[in-house]
């Protein structure tokens, strides 16, 4: 029996064995790493959801003390004072299963910058005539702090060519060409909808949801583990074929050297 396995000491099989011994741990490592990425996203999603839901339990803090927006400050309640200026509509936003639009008003603060404030949501097609005018004079607003949106993420539209007075995304990059003011790289959604509008709930920060990227990590996990299993399967298959060949060769049923074409005579 030992003679049957002597081929394992040949250079060809040394190469195969080294490849298998390196490939399997590598595949397991990569699969485990992708799985940890997925688990991290699940944990981030749970933490962000809990933070957004518990935001009303924390006392509101001044806006400037909570900037820049990150995973630890997103959803936290902040206050800001100033005067309302220009107003925009954000179309195609869903709330409680219904399509509608946000009413976005810029608050010019004492710092000389404008803060986008979502005063509420209204059902139907975005129409300036439906949007209540903002309160006049000095106001103090309280709401959940949110990071600038990225078109294409979390249902944020990436469409262009909107009518004047509308924006697809609430972000400084999208608003910079629509308003004359310097902008905060953040926005807030009011705790209570203004002028009879429905309040818009705070959302979890980008990159923390169970989105396509999270399930891509889970898919890659499966692919790496399947590939590790495939390497083991192919090694045993090659081993079995080699053993069968060696046995047949010992019985004189096949040539001594496999995979060698007969040399034509003459």
Low-confidence stretches at least 5 residues in length (pLDDT < 50)? none
Question: What's the average pLDDT?
Answer: 83
Euclidean distance between termini CA atoms? 40 Å
Class inferred from helices and paired strands: alpha/beta
Tell me the helix content: 25-40%
Overall radius of gyration:
31 Å
Structure, briefly:
The protein is α/β, with parallel strands linked by helices.
Account of the 3D structure:
By secondary structure, the chain is α/β, with parallel strands linked by helices. Helix content is 32%, strand content 21%. It has three helices and six strands. A five-stranded mixed beta barrel has the order 2-3-4-6-5. A hairpin with a 2-residue loop joins strand 2 and strand 3 (98-109). Helix 1 (11-53) runs antiparallel to helix 3 (212-250). The protein is elongated.
What are the main properties of this structure?
single chain, 266 residues, alpha/beta, Surf1/Shy1, cell membrane
Present the secondary structure layout:
Blueprint (H helix, E strand, L loop, with lengths): L10 H43 L7 E2 L14 E19 L2 E12 L4 E10 L14 E9 L25 H4 L11 E4 L21 H39 L16
Parallel strand pairs: 1-2, 4-6
Antiparallel strand pairs: 2-3, 2-5, 3-4, 5-6
Helix pairs in contact: 1-3
């Amino acid at each position: 029996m030992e003679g049957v396995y002597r081929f394992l000491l040949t250079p060809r099989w040394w190469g195969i064995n080294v490849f298998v011994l390196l490939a399997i741990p590598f595949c397991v490592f990569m699969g485990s790493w992708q799985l940890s990425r997925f688990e991290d996203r699940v944990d981030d999603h749970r933490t962000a959801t809990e933070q957004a839901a518990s935001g009303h339990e924390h006392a509101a803090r001044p806006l400037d003390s909570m900037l820049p927006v990150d995973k630890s400050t997103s959803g936290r309640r902040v206050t800001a004072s100033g005067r309302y200026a220009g107003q925009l509509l954000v179309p195609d936003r869903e709330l409680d299963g219904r399509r509608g639009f946000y009413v976005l008003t810029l608050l010019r603060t004492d710092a000389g910058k404008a803060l986008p404030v979502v005063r509420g949501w209204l059902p139907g097609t975005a129409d300036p005539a439906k949007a209540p005018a903002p309160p006049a004079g000095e106001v103090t607003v309280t709401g959940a702090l949110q990071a600038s949106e990225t078109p294409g993420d979390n249902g944020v539209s990436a469409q262009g060519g909107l009518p004047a007075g509308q924006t697809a995304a609430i972000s400084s990059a999208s608003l910079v060409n629509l308003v004359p003011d310097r902008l905060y790289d953040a926005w807030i959604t009011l705790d209570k909808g203004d002028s009879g509008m429905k309040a818009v709930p705070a959302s979890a920060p980008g990159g923390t949801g169970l989105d396509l990227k999270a399930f891509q990590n889970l898919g890659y996990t499966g692919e790496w583990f399947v590939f590790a299993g495939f390497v083991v399967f192919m090694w045993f298959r090659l081993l079995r074929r080699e053993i069968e060949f060696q046995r047949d060769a010992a019985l004189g049923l096949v040539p001594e050297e496999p995979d060698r074409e007969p040399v034509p005579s003459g």
